[in-house]
Specification:
Elements: H1 3-10, H2 32-36, H3 64-68, E1 74-80, H4 83-94, H5 101-119, E2 123-126, H6 131-137, H7 141-153, E3 162-164, H8 176-183, E4 187-189, H9 192-195, E5 199-207, H10 211-222, E6 227-235
Parallel strand pairs: 1-6, 2-5, 5-6
Antiparallel strand pairs: 3-4
């Protein structure tokens, strides 16, 4: 293509991670070397919550926590929250780099396509931000990820029905116990009839303890959805 070299001269395709020039950038804009360093979460995982097991051998099975207290929803994350992935999400979430929603969403869609197909959702709902935090940040990172997934999965995104009803402290500053208390009762569904009997794909950027997801799921259960499958781009593995 005649104009391609000219475009590369003025707008060189650079890797989002290391800033190396990549002529065949595609949609990801992540070079092969950096992509090789990304850890995808694969078998063996908990069949319910998606937590990876310490060993890299064996098959998927239910973890002890889910055997004791089976949750209403299933969950999967695409990537391990470390290195380049942690760097990209931090830039995306706190640095205003909204363009990173595309590569992060595409990586999630690729890794989680089978899980999403099996979940057979009717619609996608992103984890909402409180209106104060939305004004501060200017965008909801989970909504941007959800829009990328929606395009790939050919599903509608429902925004504004699941709401964060009260201000909560940033979860990153709290331990696991305080995280649960921080978001307990923080979410509600505005129009429950719209969701009654629906299968929901709940989307967030990162899962750590899962307390935010569980609080959202409780609100969705009150709306009598038939099932919830939750997905996140990345997961921080607890020590």
């Amino acid at each position: 293509m005649f104009f391609r070299p000219l475009l590369d001269l003025f707008f060189p395709p650079l890797c989002h991670v290391c800033r190396a020039f990549i002529p065949e950038a595609g949609e990801l804009f992540i070079c092969a070397d950096c992509l090789d360093k990304v850890t995808f979460l694969t078998t063996p995982l908990c069949t319910i919550c998606g937590a990876p097991f310490a060993t890299d051998k064996g098959s998927d099975h239910t973890c002890g926590a889910c055997l004791l207290h089976p949750p209403f929803h299933t969950c999967r994350s695409a990537l391990l929250l470390e290195g380049a992935v942690q760097q990209l999400i931090h830039r995306f979430k706190y640095g205003g780099r909204v363009q990173l929603a595309l590569p992060l969403g595409l990586l999630a869609a690729s890794a989680l396509s089978e899980f999403c197909a099996e979940a057979a959702p009717d619609l996608i709902i992103p984890v909402p931000l409180h209106k104060k935090r939305l004004r501060q940040r200017g965008y909801n990172q989970s909504q941007l990820i959800a829009q990328v997934l929606a395009k790939k999965l050919k599903l509608p995104v429902e925004v504004g029905n699941l709401r964060r009803m009260r201000w909560t402290e940033p979860q990153t500053t709290l331990d696991a116990t305080k995280r649960v208390a921080n978001v307990k009762g923080a979410f509600a569904v505005r129009d429950e009839k719209r969701l009654e009997g629906k299968r929901v794909l709940l989307v967030d950027d990162v899962l750590t303890t899962g307390s935010t997801m569980r609080a959202c799921v409780e609100a969705l259960r009150r709306a009598e959805v038939s099932a919830v499958a939750a997905v996140t781009v990345a997961r921080g593995v607890q020590p």
